[in-house]
Amino acid sequence: MAQVGERESEELTLVTTKPYFDLPTACPLCLPLFIYLKLAHFPFRLSFNSIFPDSDQIPYVESGTYVAYNNENGGVIENLKRDGIVDLDSEFQSVPDWVAMKAMISSWLADAMMYELWVGSDGKSACKIYYSDLSWPIVKVLFLKQVYSVKQHLGITKDNAEQREDEIYKRAKIAYGALSTRLGDQDFLFDDRPSSLDATFLGHVLVTLHALPETSVLRSKLLEHGNVVRYAEKHKTKLIESSSSSSGPQFRSVPSSSTPKRGPSNWSSKPKSQPKREKTEGEKTFKRRARYFLAAQLVVVLLFLSLMGGNDAGDMELDDEDEGNAFD
């Protein structure tokens, strides 16, 4: 059973990227958190950050005077569990198979998704998920910069690109097979009860099915497992499409007008906004950051071009044709 802490009485705001592809958010990191809160029947308000959509702080949650970021202490779900806010995993943490499958989803399937979005496809899905509100020159530079970063993360070079691609898809195929066998005809992966494992896997499956192109190799491998597809679509109908029904937890979707707020680690304190006309320091900071955002990205352009000019740029292997497809 889900353990819900006393902070449930305070409104929780989940900040993600914007909705696309018939999903509340198509970001592979944001959607699992959305699903986790829905599986726990934890009420929250959904907000979108369109200014810094590729920030590694997103997704993050705010509740009262507290905030937890994606890039701190193992991510938002771990923070929610550690701080006693909401925990779906208390009875599974010591189950070896559960731990092994969580590691497989967090590594093999996460790598496969990263590869598909940034390297193994034309890039249109990634640009729509993360950069839809940015100008074309900035989108192009940020996309190429991210492709370079992903190739470094996955250890892809000019010499081993084909081999690494085969390894990534082979591991994804193994993971899908193992998870499909484990799921069977159940509604959830373990003991027919929801956990963060279901949230993470459902987020991955739904992004794969709805955000990746029909030509996607990863998508084709997933479609081999009909029970996994049914499992994902069933929960999509229940948790997402019927989210406005009175029987489910309620949330409101509003455009975000705030940047991710910095703080220490874990749950970080921040000033609570008061309903008044005068601008707060946070709003003034946001205005300044928004004003200089373009200038900052120009600096990124220069740094990136500098990197491209180095001796290691050959490892990036960006074909003109592939590069152009993402921006058509």
TrEMBL record:
The keyword Transmembrane helix applies. Residues 239-283 are annotated as: Disordered. Keywords: Membrane, Transmembrane, Transmembrane helix. This is Metaxin. Residues 242-258 have a biased composition (Low complexity). The chain crosses the membrane at residues 292-310. The lineage of its organism: Eukaryota, Viridiplantae, Streptophyta, Embryophyta, Tracheophyta. Pfam families: GST_C_6, GST_N_4.
